[in-house]
Amino acid sequence: MYGQSTALIVFLLLTCMLIATELAYRNGLRKQMVANDAAKSQINTLQASMLGLLALLLSFAFSLALQRFDERNQSVVNEANAIGTTYLRTQLLPLSVREHTQTMLKQYIDLRVEEGQVSLADVEKRDALIKKTSQISDQLWALAMKSVELDKSAVTTGMFVQSLNDTIDAFGKRDAGLQRHVPETVVLLLLITIIMTAATIGYASGLTGQRAVFATLALQILISMAVFLTIDLDRPRRGFIQVSQLSMLNLQQSVHAKQ
């Protein structure tokens, strides 16, 4: 499902809702004459129950998507802070490796900024950037080990090693966050519930012989918009709502401004 366009999913959902409502309405009209008040009351009760279930599922899916989105935002900030701390602590390194380490960190930041602006759909380019980032991480770690050999003081080189380790961890957590989504089974259940609820509303309208066309259409459009927003939030770097890269961009600008 995550390989499909969000707009296409929502368009198909709205179409299915309209078709289900219309077919159920016509079916209700055919049974209007034989349906008694008890049957109509029962349908209204079921309609209210399904609307309540739909509201619960929609709020659950939306809260999950929003939580994932907030986590991705925070992971960018955490990574920027970790890299920034690592760069500052290069001042604690021996002079023989300090400048080289700072240069490598600048390259690392540039790669992380570039990768953060690449769509997840562009797998080849993203994988190439991640591979380069991993190579620089290995080189930075080798420089850290060399610094430890040159300076045994845990107060200086040890602090740099710790911050570099935090930087590598932040990279892993941020990358893992991009793969976390609302479970597809939850989304599928939500879509099925929406269509069945639309059919129930149409059937209930058919039994009464009256239909609030504008209100029904408005409700279906609003539900479709809520689903669109939920799926869009859950699609990092592919939807309209994007995770802010401002923290990384500010770090890149700050680091390159230093000589």
Q: If you had to describe this structure to a student in words, what would you say it looks like?
A:
- This protein is mainly alpha-helical.
- The protein has one domain (about 5-255).
- The chain is built from eight helices and no strands.
- The protein has helices at about 5-30, 35-90, 95-115, 125-150, 155-175, 185-210, 215-235, 245-255.
- Helix 2 packs parallel to helix 7, helix 2 (about 35-90) packs parallel to helix 8 (about 245-255) and helix 3 (about 95-115) packs antiparallel against helix 8.
- It is rod-shaped, with a radius of gyration of 27 Å.
- The model has no long low-confidence stretch (mean pLDDT about 90).
List keywords for this structure.
single chain; 259 residues; mainly alpha; 8 helices; 0% strand; rod-shaped
The radius of gyration over CA amounts to 27 Å
The fraction of residues in strands falls at: under 5%
Biggest sheet descriptor? none
Q: What average pLDDT do the residues reach? A: 89
Shape: rod-shaped
DSSP summary, beta strand count: 0
Q: Give the helix/strand class.
A: mainly alpha
Query: Low-confidence runs (pLDDT<50, min 5 residues)?
Result: none
Our count of domains comes out at 1
Calculate the terminal CA-CA distance, rounded to whole Å.
Answer: 48 Å
Number of helices: 8
Q: How helix-rich are the residues, as a percent range?
A: over 70%
Order of helices and strands: HHHHHHHH
Topology summary:
Elements: H1 6-30, H2 37-88, H3 95-116, H4 123-150, H5 157-177, H6 184-208, H7 213-233, H8 246-257
